[in-house]
Amino acid sequence: MVTTVHSPDHLLSLEEWDALPEDNSRHYELVEGVLVVSPKPKPHHQRVGGRLFGQLDAQLNDAWVVVPECEVVVDRRSPATVRVPDLVVVRAEVFRDNPARFDPADVLVAVEIFSKGTKRADRVTKYFEYAEAGIRHYWLIDPEAPLSLTAYLLVDGEYERVGESAAPMTIELDGFQVLLDLPMLDPAA
């Protein structure tokens, strides 16, 4: 059986993005008005994200909440860009309102976990988009053995690498520290 997918024939606005039918079978993002569709992450990728979620959730103070796979409007200007990081740490007060998506000003950390086909976008495109949007921390996780995390901090509008490790590491966030036990994120562990 062949399924025909109808793709938009023009750049989408944020309103048109909102009007798209819900489809959880794939991963969708809007990049400068272009609908980008990719396969859902595989189980190992999801396990890494789940384990990181657990570690962060246990350590964040009351001002912040960790949320998996939610929309962040990186650029509202037309044509809009909406990204869906693997995890974000967002302001608790905004989270309580249960918004459809978050603004970059409400995001403390954006986390991307590499998958086949995403490394270039994660390392290059999203790196610059998140910095331009003002997201203070950007973490990249490479799940290939040994699993490692590279942490960036926004300084004067550009990301500076503040840590890279496959061993447990501590990262300073908004006046408090989180300890990331990276070996425990390994999906095979």
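(the above was protein one; protein two follows)
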Amino acid sequence: MGQFKNLIKISMMIIITFSLTGCWDKTELDQKAYVIGIGLDAHEKEGKIKVTYLVANPEVGSQQSGGGSTESPEEVISLVADDFISSRNTANTVISKEISYDLLSVIIVSEELARKPDFIRVIYSAAKDREIKRTTELVITKESAEKFILNNNPLLETRPHKYFEFMIRRGKETGMIPNTDLNGFFQVAETDADLFLAIYASTEKERDKEIISDDDFMAGEVQFGGKTNDTQFMGSAVFKEGMMIGKITGEETRISSLLDNTWELEDFKTTFKDPFDERYRISARVAKQRKNSYDFKQRNGKAIIDIRVPVYVEILSDPSMVNFAKNNDKVAELKKSMTKTMEEHLTKYIKNTQEEFKGDTFHLSVPIRKGFWTLQEFRDFDWMKSYPDAEINVNVDIRFGEFGRQTKLPELREVRD
């Protein structure tokens, strides 16, 4: 009897195994057209949008191709459709392979479309297609999305999926673009408590931009020489309730990241005014190794928030030749100057968001919820309406690291003599 039961079990296992090995519905790699980016533009006809597909050629740059393929690494096709979900079937009238969103990494939207009240209806199509991942990046362009895709011509990385991956990842690490994705857009739009920052990019260069700071630029404003790609990723597009209402520079994006505990920011390099010689600026590496602390209270219905921002700073240059490593008094003076500068910049940015955008871009609603007994009490407080009148105080706590590898600098007269 026991042998009979074992035989039945073995037979069932064999049947199940064979049922799982079917390949009737498989699709070979060379039978699919993998869309890396989708461009969305406004159309003159109501209810219509212009969809641009950036389709990658998986054989170019692969080991199988041997690096000697003469095929193009990408194909671009634009069409007018009701949405970018049903447009796939229309695109297959000119693309022979099955269009797939499996490798979709960026959705590129023109600023014109992003500023329309109906944009939220367009982008929510991404939540209905199971192939579109919530980690897909949302990029807003100054020009049309079609023009951005056509003008983007990276010289060192011909594979489009790798180019966007490298550019966006490094931009997020340095704080020049926001650390957000499509999932963050939906979350912020639905909670209606904070503002959302999307990546801002452009292939169009602006001339004669006044240089205020190394980071105080929008995409398209940084001046480069030589021979390189014209595409720039810098700054952020600001969204309120699913519609773009403004934009901020790369420097302001960094400031927003310093105020945001949800942002894992890597170290970045910047410059500060030299307190010992106004002709120079001091280079420094700034990192936020610890989380911000927040103190929230109410007074007569008005929110009062104290934010403490701990930063770690390494000094990389000493243009006035003070030799900080051997002079504690100069270090204290430098710390006082840098603290004042950072607090002024953070306070100015917060004030700007209160007056211009009427909302915060650094998820301030997350820590202040702890100051309410219930979620309903927080909702009744209506953070979006309360934020513009809130009193927000910022304190920066600087901790110095190294002062460069050279511990002793020569006197200027010693060099010249």
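Reviewer note on protein two: The chain has 13 helices and 14 strands.
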